[in-house]
Amino acid sequence: MVSDPADAAAAHLREARRLNEARAYPALVRLLDGLPGDAFEQTPELAFLQADVHRRLGRAAEALEQVRRLEAVCRMRGNDRLARMRANLEGMLLFDRGDVAEAERVWVRLLDASTEARDDEFVARATNNLGVIFSLQRRGAEALAALARAIDAYRRLDHLRGLAQSHQNLAITYREMGFPGEADRHFSRALEYAERDGSADEAARVEQEMALSQLLWGDADLARATATRALDRYEKLGDPVGQGECRRVYGLIHLRAADGERAEQELRAALELAMQGGAALLEAELLEALAGAARLRAQRREARRLRGQATRTFRALGAGAWARAARERIDGLVEAAANG
């Protein structure tokens, strides 16, 4: 039985790391939420792990508050690994809630700190995340360059999970640039790396984006099967935003099939999950899709209201170019549905 506080803190940290590496997020949050407050003061990494798992399970506001409390501790420690972990997580939380400009600033500072520390892993993380922002803003050449740098760094480290993330983001960038062959190749590589790493959450993210691509490329049956695999993974992980992404694919499948009522049901279920998890970009995309479902059902006033709401949300994210692409995508699905 552990009685010394330092021994107890070390034991808690070992167990928390084990659960985190196993992606056993429900068990991890039970462990961390059951610890006394002084455990986090003694061992700041426990505070980081708690914020990280809260984000994964849809408790984004709580996670951001925790990350910001941790900033003072990290400032005193200097440019160490925990400080870089904290900054990366802060950027993800800001991005999730829609503060893209501030997330970019955080990740640029992280890139500088990681370069100074010669920390290839966080150079890779920062450039991977910046690549996502550049893709969101339709800055294709910059996105490809950032993601290529991330892949190069992750490859030197043999970091399979990071390679899965970067290849997935590269696939999305190629999809949005209109290169389906390149996109499909990078999705396949991303899924291979995720499965080799045993990262069920990353495999789910790859499959959810593959499903959307398969629908856009005309194979609704394959898209549904792929989205179902991803949804099963997300349900086991307890990830509401991931579940919302999969339900969005279901909604778009019904939209393409000209079933406006079922499309609306799935899209509203997805919207509730996105709002629960604080995923502002997904929320905007779902509002645009719901506008398409309303148009399909000849509810023109409701379609205008939803599109206006989507436009305002995209604008607040600084994602005007992504908004135009989302609108074109939904318009294409509605037009295809109307033409049979």
Which features does this protein show?
18 helices; mainly alpha; 340 residues; 0% strand
Give structural notes:
86% of the residues lie in helices and 0% in strands. The protein is mainly alpha-helical and 340 residues long. The chain has 18 helices and no strands. The chain starts with a helix and ends with a helix.
- State the major sheet: none
Strand content: under 5%
Number of strands: 0
Overall pLDDT score: 93
Which residues form runs of ≥5 with pLDDT under 50?
none
Helices, by number, come to 18
Overall geometry comes to: globular
Q: Could you tell me the radius of gyration in angstroms?
A: 20 Å
How helix-rich are the residues, as a percent range?
over 70%
Briefly note the structural class of the backbone: mainly alpha
What letter string, H or E per element, gives the SSE order? HHHHHHHHHHHHHHHHHH
What's the N-to-C terminus distance? 69 Å
Q: Layout of helices and strands, plus pairs?
A:
Layout: H1 5-21, H2 25-33, H3 37-42, H4 44-56, H5 60-77, H6 81-97, H7 100-117, H8 120-136, H9 140-157, H10 160-177, H11 180-197, H12 200-216, H13 220-237, H14 240-256, H15 260-277, H16 280-296, H17 300-316, H18 320-338
Helix pairs in contact: 1-2, 1-4, 2-4, 4-5, 4-6, 5-6, 6-7, 6-8, 7-8, 8-9, 8-10, 9-10, 10-11, 10-12, 11-12, 12-13, 12-14, 13-14, 14-15, 14-16, 15-16, 16-17, 16-18
